[in-house]
Design goal:
By secondary structure, the protein is an alpha/beta fold. About 45% of the residues lie in helices and about 25% in strands.
Length: about 280
Amino acid sequence: MSMSTSAERDMAAYWDRAGQVWVEHQALLDRIMAPIGEAVVEAASLANGESVLDVGCGAGATTLAAAWRVGPTGRAVGVDISGALVELARRRAGEDGIEGAEFLLADAQTHAFAPSFDAIISRFGVMFFPDPVSAFANLRRALKPGGRLAFAAWRGPEENPLSQIPLRAAAPFLSEPPRFETEGPGRFAFADRDRVRGVLEASGWREIAVAPLDAASPLSFDELLTMSLRVGPLNPILKAADEDMRRKVGEAVATALAPHVREGVATMNSACWLVTAKV
């Protein structure tokens, strides 16, 4: 087995698990990320009748927003590696009666897309490629001449401080606390602006622009705890832990987050990059 194949299988297994969590909390996640998705769709300058590919489409919110933009004569295709998320996305498109949206269960790094798209978009779906240069070269081949790319990726953990608090609070109770990687695949893989630009240049893109994008989302304290314990990297650890460990970590995280809540509301700031490029 080659290293890339092993890494791809690891990522598929990861999203089998993570996809189930995202399905469970889809409404909350979509609400938090809505401003980011809107900014990505806006940056792609989608026109009526165009074809757009949404990479790492998750439960389909950004694909459906793109489908509205390109209209009934256009086509919006969402691709994701998680079967649970693709199934939910298809169900939502059917319930909303959106005919121009379709969803594909595939690995966007290696899937042989027909060169039929005017634009590629992604809301936090491109940081998980085991080989990002190969992946972005593959995506570039999916575009028609003159095609364009717009995506959002997280800036560093230090600029997203609410992501750090639960890990620090849980650390004394865990034999090996999770760490956010900024080199390999993961949430903060594209934290370094120069790395983003380097990956895109190496995979043949031009007119690359990387600009900061910040979006604030209000959350209740319970929603903040859900994001910290159920959606984030503590989730698989706590799932395997005993009840006493879960209680101790839950209490420690709640205590650490409490100062960030005012009158029952916490503000989660999503510090990202908004990236655009052309073929």
